[in-house]
Amino acid sequence: MVSTLLPRRPAARERAAAERPRPARSAVHRLRRAAVGSSGIVVFLLVWQIAPQLGWVDKTFLPPFTQVLHAWWGLAVSGELWADLRASLFRSLTGFVIAVVAAVPAGLLIAWYRTLADAVTPLLTIFLNTAAVALLPVFVLILGIGETSKIAIIAYASFWPVLYNTISGARNVDPLLVRSVRSLGVTGPRLLQKVILPGALPTIFTGIRLAGATSILVLITTELVGAKAGLGYLISNAQYNFQIPQMFAGILTVAAVGLVFYQILITAERRVSHGQVPSR
């Protein structure tokens, strides 16, 4: 009798449903976050537009944003922009993929085998602290001025962030988890594949994102020095011919490519890590 008079607690499913955010409220929250996140960009573009028009800066050297957009559209319609974009994406993505494919296994091996780490760490430290751009003449002398040298130096520069983050991530995997799995008879390559690699994924993806930014940076540098196509060539050629709006259009395209590349890597990180990576 007493139990019938006591208020019944809601079931776990009902409580979860009550705590779940409503779709309308969630949509409003996402829109608010998007508006706040884009406010800085909007303010920057507004200042860029009005500063030359009000005479704060010389229009010759910093044209209004709308004029840059007009120049960008002209490059896009003529097809020149897409040809340069294809050339740059091929070089950047090829070097980036080579770096990731080489650096992740190498990092896992160095982190796992202490003798190997002791043998190669001094040499790796020397290469890490040598700027990739400083080695550009060496790559050109050995591989020529064509595509091979550009891809090679992009791969070289992108290799180090992935390598060192892979080493750090593999060494920071929970040792108790490693010992527990070892006690079940899992060792060697299977242990690296089943335990070390999944545990190190968040840190590895941090290195991959850094490598993505590095590949774009080094790409533009190599194209500024010696290239007949590419976004870096577009920027350099526009500067030499005093086509300032076209130059800024190329710079905006580089920024857009970097942003899209970053978002793709963030999406891949979230999917591959299966919820291990917190939402950004």
UniProtKB/TrEMBL annotation:
Ranges where the ABC transmembrane type-1 domain occurs: 85-265
CDD domains xrefs: TM_PBP2 (cd06261)
Chain residue ranges for the region called Disordered: 1-23
PROSITE patterns, A to Z: ABC_TM1
Signal peptide: none
InterPro entries the UniProt entry points to: MetI-like (IPR000515), MetI-like_sf (IPR035906)
Keyword Transferase among record annotations: no
Biased segments, Basic and acidic residues type: 11-22
Membrane topology designation: Multi-pass membrane protein
Chief place of localization: membrane
Subcellular localization: Cell membrane
Residues annotated as transmembrane: 34-51, 89-111, 123-145, 151-170, 216-235, 247-266
Pfam families: BPD_transp_1 (PF00528)
Entry keywords, A to Z: Cell membrane, Membrane, Transmembrane, Transmembrane helix, Transport
Similarity comment: Belongs to the binding-protein-dependent transport system permease family.
PANTHER family in alphabetical order: ABC TRANSPORTER PERMEASE PROTEIN MJ0413-RELATED, ALKANE SULFONATE ABC TRANSPORTER-RELATED, MEMBRANE SUBUNIT
UniProt-recorded name of the protein: ABC transporter permease
